[in-house]
Amino acid sequence: MTDSLVVQATALRALHRPGDPLVLPNAWDAGSARTVVEAGFGAVATASAAIAQSLGYADGEGTPAEEMFAAVSRIARAVTVPVTADLERGYGLPPVELVQRLLDAGAVGLNLEDSAPSDAALVDSQVQAELLAEVRAAADAAGVPIVINARVDVFLRAYGDPAGRLDEAIRRARAYLAAGADCVYPIVLADPVQLRSFVEAVPGPVNVLARPAAPTLPELAALGVARISYGPGLYAATRAHAAHLLASVAAGGPLA
């Protein structure tokens, strides 16, 4: 099993190409994961918010860890492409256990965010770098080069003076890459000028959240982005469409 995980982790890492980004419409269950693969995407990412809501929990580590990993496992079993899991801030698990649970679930990548689920406050960057370094060491010990995507929540949490957020995000991103992260994710950063500055200042692949305020996929590629995520967007759109269909049925109309 370790050999196959190594192959998948290596494949996932190779898909992070600046200018030719990995596009990830995030899944929340086995069925949505299969649909992502059937549409031609080369990897599957989970969205913690989508999984949480589909299981009846709130985002922000409201889902018990065992249920989150069970959901990731169902997704990984349903597809043959690499799977990367959104694991929020790790559910308080020791890094060795976090990595082992990830691998036991069949996933070869993970997101870790640098704000606390309890109060949304940013974690000290050194504390976060130490966590990332421990996760990398645990992955090395397990013999699987998992892909660590380090989320940078400076813009999401509207941290500090707006004029200093870009510099703070760059500082954190550099520290996280130095600690062993493979990719950095300045979530909700959408301004193309700031994105270009961030990409040019950070010595590693950059992940951007696709949303209406963000540049288009071709524009993000031209900015040098290496990974584009949709977060819970696909789940939200699916629920909205289901609500439309149900309203039609409730009004005596067709399921259309």
Structure description:
The strands form two sheets. A five-stranded parallel beta sheet has the order 2-3-4-5-6. A three-stranded parallel beta sheet has the order 1-8-7, with no helix packed on it. By secondary structure, the protein is of the alpha/beta class. It is globular and about 60 Å long. The chain starts with a helix and ends in a 6-residue tail after the last helix. Helix 9 (217-222) links the parallel strand 7 and strand 8. It has helices at 2-14, 30-38, 48-54, 65-78, 95-104, 125-142, 165-179, 192-201, 217-222, 233-250, and strands spanning 22-24, 44-45, 83-86, 109-112, 147-151, 183-185, 207-209, 227-229. It is built from ten helices and eight strands. The longest helix is centred in the middle third of the chain and has 18 residues, at 125-142. It has a single domain, classed as Alpha-Beta Barrel (TIM Barrel).
Rounded Rg: 18 Å
Q: State the strand order across the main sheet.
A: 2-3-4-5-6
Structural class: alpha/beta
By CATH, the architecture is named Alpha-Beta Barrel
Helix content: 40-55%
Average of pLDDT:
97
Runs with pLDDT <50, length 5+? none
> Which oligomerization state do the chains in this entry correspond to?
single chain
The coarse silhouette is globular
The CATH homologous superfamily is named Phosphoenolpyruvate-binding domains
The proportion of strand residues reads 5-15%
**Could you state the order of secondary-structure elements as H and E?**
HEHEHHEHEHEHEHEHEH
CATH fold type = TIM Barrel
